[in-house]
Amino acid sequence: MFLAQGVGITPYRSLLRDIRATGSRTHTTLVHVGRGHTFRRDTEPLADSALYPTDTRNFRSVLTAIMRSQPDARYYLCGTSAFIKSTTTMLIDHGIRSKHIKKDKFIGYQPAEPKAPVSGHNCAPEPVPIGHQ
Known about the structure:
By secondary structure, this protein is of the alpha/beta class. The protein has helices spanning 10-22, 40-43, 56-69, 81-93; strands at 2-5, 29-33, 49-51, 75-79, 101-105. Strands 3-2-1-4-5 form a 5-stranded parallel sheet, covered by helices on one side.
């Protein structure tokens, strides 16, 4: 059971490709919640079942149905910290054992903090006048 939110779909794309390429008999259900479904054309045909809710209410409804039909499944979560926390709580509240829940925060691109120059040193190269290179 792959549960993704937003850019959290990214690692599942690779996992689904690997499962297909190796001929694994792993049953895969993919649930990707978000307004846009990046990689849908790639992931949908690779999963045994793929669902694409667009909001929290629909996601919770889909997940509740899945938990009832597959209580012994392994749940892999990937998305923001808030998604991981709320989804983990929901799974545990519905009787899914914590050892069946694997989590991966995947919050996407985070710009690095700018580093301050070392005191007394200018890290920028000296400008070269045009024609004097």
